[in-house]
Amino acid sequence: MGHRLNPGPNHSQTPGAQAAGRVAIVGGGWAGLAAGVELAAAGVPVVVFEAARSLGGRARSVDRADGSRLDNGQHILLGAYSETLRLMQRVGADPERLLHRQALDLRYPGSASAAPFRLHLPRLPAPLHLAVGLLAAEGLTFADRLAAVRFMRSLQTRAWTLPADESVAALLEREGQGKRGSRLRRRLWEPLCLSALNTPACEASAQVFVNVLRDSLGGTRAATDLLLPAADLGRIFPEPAAAFIAAHRGEVRVSTRVSSIEVDDSSGAFIVRSTAAGAADAGGAHAAAGDDGGGERFAQIIVATAAPAAARLLAPWPAIAAPFSALTHAPIGTLYLGYPPDVRLPFPMLGLDGEGGGAAALAGQPADQTPLGQWVFDRGQLCATPGVLSFVLSGSGAWEAFDAAALGQRLQRELETALGERLPPPLWRQLISERRATFDCLPGMARPACRTAQHGLWLAGDFVCAGYPATLEGAVRSGVAAARAILTD
Questions:
Q1: Helix axes 82-90, 472-488, angle to 10 degrees
Q2: Checking CA distances to 295, which of 26, 241, 373, 469 falls within 20 to 30 Å?
Q3: C-alpha span between 224 and 368 (Å, rounded)
């Protein structure tokens, strides 16, 4: 049976809320919850349906057998995530307490084949902080530094708009950022592209990458800050958002899968049929009221699920479902290694030499020598869990063929090489692979708007937020856009 967070006391409605009627939101990820918070704050009664036991979608907390919690991936927020930060504050999740804010500081210890690298942006007014940071970057030639400054200046003078979309690799080469494998691209632009878009530079959309640069490196000084989670993802937004919705006339039903959506031709209402599951997993659960097989009626509905579920639910409207059916996806892997509490990195976040075993392997390097690790985070310094390191593997690559034990051995060796010291054997390990973590962010993609041709049917999700990659901010913005459209429709 679905676990329900019951509605709280009545709150005053805005004029837009009175016209909106009761709204169903299918999907309890960051997009659906953002829409729910925005509507609930305006006094709209909402019901959020989430098929999983926990909220957050592809950015959620995972319970371990010993009672501790991990995240299903090591997510990074930026100071530029204005809507995410605004909604966190609205639901009572204090960003200053739950996020570790630090000036952008990218560090690679180096290896036998590559010199150490560091890009640190000082706390100076924008754009001076970026110019000083790039010109002082360690591990680059002076010509590389000047080229990077010219590149950012060139994008700014063109108002961050390209004449036509192309691959990031083509843009970098055309803008004098070196050939593939050059130091500037390998240490700066290509890791930023893979981290932000989860798509390699040779395939990724240049315009979306430029949009990310505009809002981060090209924004205010605070926009460039890294916001590293200091708590598990559930506490950062999903759980406070659900509590906020429940306190504002709404409901949040986990372990409740929506099986179909249809329109009542006579009234125009949406009929939502759902099935509840997991009674043994959710204390205090009871069946979703009103769904006795005939479904529940809503004036409007927001579909905010992952693409495969959206395509299934939207099947009655083939033209609306088509973009979701056509999506291709890329994975993200996160390997957690638990060491004795005294094991710590010299910095909370450290770059490694790998590309997930993708591009390097294609360059002809033997598979057993291809570096895999991309970034490693010290969760002891971030989340007060001493000894826990998380390794992030973005995009498709050789890492996908490894189990947790073999991957752990490989990544530990790479980290030991980078640090120049031996580490003790890990006490435990856990590999979390999200096979459809993000959509492939390709040039010229046709992406739907939140408004559809079916009156009262709205879309949300990172894919819907045109111009942004599959990030938490993109998901939140899409949910806010759908909610505001309902309120002003």
A1: 70
A2: 241
A3: 36
With a CB cutoff of 8 Å and minimum separation 6, the contacts of 158 are none
The string of pLDDT tens digits covering residues 363-404 is 445 556 688 999 999 999 998 899 999 999 999 999 999 999
Other Cβ atoms less than 10 A from the Cβ of 326: the count is 11
The string of pLDDT tens digits covering residues 216-274 is 999 999 999 999 999 999 999 999 999 999 999 999 999 999 999 999 999 999 999 99
Q: Within 13 Å of residue 76, how many CA atoms lie on the same side as its CB?
A: 24
Q: Which residues contact 43 (CB under 8 A, 6 or more apart)?
A: 11, 12, 13, 14, 17, 18, 248, 249
Closest C-alpha among 314, 328, 336, 482 to residue 412:
336
Could you give the strand order of the β-sheet that contains 251-254, starting from the edge strand earlier in sequence? 3-5, 251-254, 46-49, 23-26, 300-303, 457-459
Residue 293 token pair: 């097989």
Q: What is the pTM of this model?
A: 0.91
Q: Which two tokens stand for residue 258?
A: 């929506």
Q: How many CB atoms are located within 10 Å of the residue 351 CB?
A: 23
Closest by alpha carbon to 205, among 166, 158, 147, 152?
A: 166
